[in-house]
Design goal:
globular; Rossmann fold; Chemotaxis Receptor Methyltransferase Cher, domain 1; alpha/beta; binds S-adenosylmethionine
Length: about 270
Amino acid sequence: MLATKTCMAISDGEFQALRKIMQTASGIELADEKRYLVINRLSKRLRLHGFENFGAYLALVRQDPVERQMLVDLLTTNETWFFREPKHFDWLRRFCREHRGMVRVWSAASSTGEEAYSIGMTLAESLAGQRWEVVGTDISHSVVERANRGLFPAKVIDSIPREYLRKYWLKGIDEYAGSILAKSDIRDHIHFRVGNLNQRLPSSMGLFDVAFLRNVLIYFSGEGKLRLIRHVLERVKPDGLLMVGHSESLFGLDLPLEQLAPSIYRKTH
Ligand SMILES: C[S@@+](CC[C@H](N)C(=O)[O-])C[C@H]1O[C@@H](n2cnc3c(N)ncnc32)[C@H](O)[C@@H]1O
């Protein structure tokens, strides 16, 4: 058994069981060293239910799909920021210069939405009158809800170019003081919904010209990683672009992709 002062203890068997549930639900493989993360993130939830151990919590998670979703929400890592890995946005600008017609971009693990809004500002600036749409999806219900609000703490303004701030964001007042809100110029083109990349995405999502699949592959390996990328590629047009995080490698994977630059790929067919 492992324990910390303020957190619950988890046995080996309970940790393995939670790991399995998480893997089945999301495809995410929790490594051994994530054990303390699991304890830290779930202890509060256990206390909220009045449970004194993980055994009781596991029984609940096994029978209640809503609690299983809550588990996924609590164990996913949602760190993100505006214009993260700026080189991808340079490629997006370049794509827009060469593309005719409507542009659809997918933020495939969109977290709280900073990536999708960064894409939206880039498209609004780069497209001369063409229609555009950004779709953000994430497995976590709570982050999708937050992303849909388009409301961010004012401290993020340092990561958004001044000119874009003026054009695309409103400064909150009264109850929204200390926040910024996306203007309808970008907001009306950006939509978020729950989407699990461990499963095939519905064809009703349509096809995308560019997919951002960044900083999520690190939680997957082997067959699971390959399956996830295939699910994403199913929804990308031939010749469309795929951006992955700079620390994520697709080396050696059998995929219909041509590498254009580090972390940037073109779907070949
Ligand atoms: C670290 S954030 C990355 C956010 C953004 N793409 C970026 O690069 O800043 C990883 C996100 O992947 C999501 N995620 C993890 N597994 C997923 C899955 N199977 N399907 C969809 N989203 C998933 C998490 O909920 C989390 O919000």
